[in-house]
Amino acid sequence: GSGDCSRCARFTPELKKAYRELKARHDNFEVVYLSGDRSKAAYERSVAQNELPWRVVPYETMYAAATARSFQSDLMPVVYLIRPDGTVIASTASGEARDVVKRLERELKG
User: Fold this and answer.
1) Distance CA 68, CA 65 (A)
2) pLDDT value at residue 46
3) CA atoms lying within 13 Å on the CB side of residue 81
4) For residue 93, what pLDDT is reported?
5) CA dist 73 → 51, 76, 99, 108 (Å)
6) pLDDT along the chain (110 residues), means of 10
7) Contact, 33 vs 42, CB < 8 A?
8) What is the pLDDT of residue 72?
9) What span, in angstroms and rounded, lies between the C-alpha atoms of 105 and 110?
10) Are 16 and 52 contacting, i.e. CB atoms less than 8 angstroms apart?
């Protein structure tokens, strides 16, 4: 997560662990990272330090993408669980980030 975010620093390792465990059993989902970092240097530092195993939206295109703008938030970390049809079925706006991971587990089992 964002380099200046203590909640992100705690949550990112949990998400990485859940991602690896779930990817080993299910290949029908993906995590896409949109940084909350305000500078390219902070973004690059955050991505490098966290060794993210999932897709990372490049800094240069992050704020230009309409999809990215639609998911901007003042919350960090913010996690959305989105079905392939674009329906948001869970987000950290409605609970803790860990709750979204649990919901993803349920969705993948279902």
Assistant:
1) 5
2) 87
3) 22
4) 63
5) 23, 8, 18, 26
6) 69 86 87 83 90 87 67 69 79 70 83
7) no
8) 66
9) 9
10) yes
